[in-house]
C-alpha cells in the first residue's frame, strides 16, 4: 500500500474484508473505525513512505507496552477477562488430558500462565504470535470445533497465530488470524467470534518477565536440578531447591524452542547447555553441562506431559538423541546425586510415568 503525505486512509476490517477511503489532507491512518464499539488507532506518516508513528508520538512497539513479546522466549502472563474480571484463561486436567477452560478465579486459587512467541523466529511484530501454556510444553491455544478454542499440539508449525492489539492501558484484544475472529469469554467457554464487547477484552498480567529462568523440580522429592560450578563437563546433580540468594543461579534454566517440540535447555549463569555426555546412547549416560553446540540432537530434549498424582503438571524430559529420559538412578535423593539418561519407565500409553523421571517447572 503506497501512501503520499497529506492523505488520510480509513481502513475498515471485518471478517478479513478491507475497504479504503481517501478523504483529503489529513496525515493519519484510522484503523478499525467500522462502527460503534470497534477499536481504533491513529498513525502519522513520517517522510514520503517511512516510519509510522502513533498519535501520541511513540512507535507502535513502544506503545504496546509488551516489549518482551518481541523476544522469542515470550512473556509469561495471566490472561484475565475485562467484562468478567473473575474469569481467566486456564487449563484443567480432564481424564489426565490438559484441557483449555474459562476458569473462575474465585473457586480456583491456581494461577494459570501462558506466553506468546513469534510464529517465526524472524518475526518481531505483535501481529502473528503463538499462544502457549507455560507449564504444558508443546501445548498451544488453537481454534477448535464450533468456533471455540482448545489446547493441542501444532500439526502445522507455520500456521497463522494471534494478533495482539492494545486498546487502553493493559487492556488488549486477541485476534485469531486463522479464523478472523476475536477471542472472547463466552458462556463457560473460550469462543472465537465477530462480537466485540467487554468480554472480548483481556488484561495481560505480567507474572515473570524472566520467563525461561525457572527451576526444574522433581515433584516426588521436592528437589531441583543443579549444576554446581557451571564449568564445561560438570555433571548435573539433584539438590535442595534454592529460590533466592546464593546458589539460585545454579538452578535456573531457560527452555529455548528449536521447532517440532524440541528444546535446548540453557543455563544462563554459565552460558552452557544441558548435554548428553559423549553422545551416549545407553542407560546410565551422565547428563552434563557443556558448551552449547547449536541445534544438534546431543543437546535437544522433548518435554512430554505424563499422567500423575502430583499437584503440578509433570513431564518426562526425553533426549532426542537416544529417546531416553533424564532419570534419578535408583531414587537416590541425597544432595549431589548425579543425574543420568535411562530408559523411560512408564508413559502415557503404558500407565503413570515413574517418579524417578518426572519433572515440573518451578517459578521463583
Describe this structure in words.
It is a single chain. The chain is an all-beta fold and 364 residues long. 1% of the residues lie in helices and 40% in strands. The chain contains 1 helix and 29 strands. It has one helix spanning 60-64, and strands at 9-14, 17-21, 29-31, 41-45, 52-54, 76-81, 87-94, 97-104, 114-118, 129-133, 140-143, 149-152, 162-168, 171-176, 181-185, 190-193, 202-208, 215-218, 223-226, 237-240, 254-257, 262-267, 272-276, 285-291, 301-305, 315-319, 325-327, 340-342, 360-362. The strands form 7 sheets. Strands 21, 22, 23, 24, 25, 26, 27 and 28 form an 8-stranded antiparallel sheet that branches. It starts with 8 loop residues before the first strand and ends with a strand. The relative contact order is 0.11.
Count of runs of 4 or more consecutive helical residues: 1
Rg over CA atoms, rounded to whole Å, is: 23 Å
Overall average residue pLDDT:
74
Percent of sequence in beta strands: 35-45%
Q: Termini distance? A: 47 Å
Helical content class: under 10%
* Uncertain ranges: 1-73
SSE-based structural type: mainly beta
The total of beta strands comes to 29
Q: Name the helix and strand elements from N-terminus to C-terminus, one letter apiece.
A: EEEEEHEEEEEEEEEEEEEEEEEEEEEEEE
Shape: elongated
Largest sheet: 8 strands, antiparallel
